[in-house]
């Protein structure tokens, strides 16, 4: 790499939040939704969003320079393939992810040095309470969080279904299943299967509509509770995607032990996470690990770290099934 190219690469990394915060602003204002019926000027968009037309023009011009929106000769802005994903109503929408990342996450990242110095979550310092206690008190943010999870993890369900055969499982329990989009897709692929969605009360309340809309109310039970207290008994598969990474080892062990206590003898524990590889290779999970440090107080783990956690909770890691993405399915049985 030439010296100039190195400078450019580093500059882009250092100023990366310029583009992410600009996307956050456009996503929060719902600009992409307003452009579905056709291109509009900054004045028209400003009137619809109660913003300053000059400032909004500058925001959209900057975003158009990186392929999000496009300005035509009449100074009207339209959608581009990237901007399409900032609409609220498209499959794989990233709007909620942009809104969440630019809001609470960005504020927590602003205090990253606090976390690096203390090992504690900067989210708690900024918001004065843990992330999963903050959400129920802010229903609008909690809804954005559920949708952001679908935005960031939604594609993973397809990859999991491609890589793992659930056909022997009569009942699947999705622990911390969020808005139900994951269990809905699994149940749709396996019409004989029954599902249970388990999550905190405020999440289950919102998930109900999703399960109903998917036409799965008769095949999917919704159970509210906390996995630190107990999880439902009797399923064939105890499925947890992006749950254990939210917690430190002590809390993760509590969750795993609750699963162990509830699981029938021959059932399977399926933990779906990114496994941190050895060495210097690029791997998104290494940055997601920082999100875990700053926000919920969890961590991404290596395979040996997972193996050791499972062992302490009474499980044996039998198989690791990789998917097309960074995600792996860690299949465990009771020892
Ligand atoms: C990172 S999200 C993952 C959501 C979903 N499994 C996915 O892959 O998109 C973590 C989930 O754990 C749930 N959760 C957090 N604390 C919980 C608790 N004490 N008991 C049950 N669920 C909890 C959250 O409400 C959220 O839905």
Measured by DSSP, the beta-strand proportion falls in 15-25%
Count of individual helical segments:
16
> Regarding CATH, which class of the largest domain?
Alpha Beta
Mean pLDDT over all positions: 96
State the domain count.
Answer: 2
Quaternary state, please? Answer: single chain
Radius of gyration: 22 Å
Strand order, main sheet: write it out: 6-5-4-7-8-10-9
Q: So, CATH architecture of the largest domain?
A: 3-Layer(aba) Sandwich
Q: What global shape is seen?
A: globular
Fourth CATH level, the homologous superfamily of the largest domain? Vaccinia Virus protein VP39
Spans where pLDDT lies below 50 across 5 or more residues: none
How is this structure best described in words?
The protein has 335 residues and is an alpha/beta fold. It has 2 domains: 85 residues, Arc Repressor Mutant, subunit A; 233 residues, Rossmann fold, CATH 3.40.50.150. Helices cover 51% and strands 15% of the residues. It has a 7-stranded mixed β-sheet, with helices on both faces. A 3-stranded antiparallel β-sheet has the order 1-3-2. α13 links the parallel β5 and β6. It is globular. The N and C termini lie far apart (51 Å). The model has no long low-confidence stretch (mean pLDDT 96). Bound molecules: S-adenosylmethionine. The site of S-adenosylmethionine has 17 residues, from α11.
């Amino acid at each position: 790499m030439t010296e100039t190219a190195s400078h450019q690469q580093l500059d882009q990394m250092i100023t990366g939040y310029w583009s992410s915060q600009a996307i956050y602003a456009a996503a929060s204002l719902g600009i992409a939704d307003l452009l579905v019926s056709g291109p509009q000027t900054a004045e028209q968009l400003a009137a619809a969003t109660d913003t300053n037309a000059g400032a909004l023009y500058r925001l959209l011009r900057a975003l158009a320079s990186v392929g999000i929106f496009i300005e035509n000769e009449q100074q009207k802005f339209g959608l581009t393939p990237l901007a399409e994903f900032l609409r609220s109503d498209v499959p794989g929408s990233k709007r909620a992810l942009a809104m969440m990342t630019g809001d609470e996450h960005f504020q927590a990242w602003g205090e990253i040095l606090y976390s690096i110095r203390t090992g504690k979550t900067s989210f708690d310092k900024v918001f004065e309470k843990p992330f999963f206690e903050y959400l129920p008190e802010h229903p609008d943010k909690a809804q954005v969080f559920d949708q952001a999870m679908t935005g960031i993890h939604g594609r993973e369900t397809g990859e999991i279904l491609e890589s793992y055969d659930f056909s022997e499982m009569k009942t699947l329990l999705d622990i911390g299943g969020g808005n139900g989009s994951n269990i809905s897709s699994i149940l749709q692929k396996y019409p004989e299967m029954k599902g249970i969605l388990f999550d905190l009360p405020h999440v289950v309340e919102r998930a109900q509509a999703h399960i109903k809309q998917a036409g799965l109310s008769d095949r999917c039970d919704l159970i509210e509770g906390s996995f630190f207290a107990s999880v439902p008994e009797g399923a064939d598969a105890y499925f947890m995607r992006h749950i254990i990474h939210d917690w430190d080892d002590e809390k993760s062990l509590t969750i795993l032990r609750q699963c162990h206590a509830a699981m029938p003898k021959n059932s399977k524990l399926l933990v779906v996470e990114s496994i941190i590889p050895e060495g210097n290779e690029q791997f998104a999970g290494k940055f997601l690990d920082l999100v875990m440090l700053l926000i919920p107080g969890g961590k991404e783990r290596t395979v040996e770290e997972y193996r050791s956690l499972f062992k302490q909770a009474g499980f044996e890691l039998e198989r690791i099934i990789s998917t097309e993405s960074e995600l792996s399915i860690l299949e465990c049985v009771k020892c």
